Amino acid sequence: GDKTTLPDQSLSDFVLIISSNHTVKQGMNPDGLINGKWSVKEKEMLLIIKDETMNQEYPMKIISLTVNELILQDASSDTPLKIYYHAK
Questions:
Q1: Is the pLDDT of residue 59 over 80?
Q2: Interior CA angle at 29 toward 55 and 70, to 5°?
Q3: Is the pLDDT of residue 9 over 60?
Q4: Which of 36, 54, 63, 87 lies most in the core, judged by the most C-beta atoms within 10 Å?
């Protein structure tokens, strides 16, 4: 009907800093950031984030990539979750 859905704000404090040297920092403000590495599987359009603290990998499906925006979908979840990042 006339139902309106707004974006989930639960991840609004999540920070993901992707560097060109294949390192990444991720975490929630103000808890601090966790170091890791990233890689890409181009054929599958996957961004793989490897958390160095827990030694765990997080596959993210690349939905869209532009100069200023990255849209990912959590590939490890049964529920489709899209994550939008904007360049600062």
A1: yes
A2: 70
A3: no
A4: 36
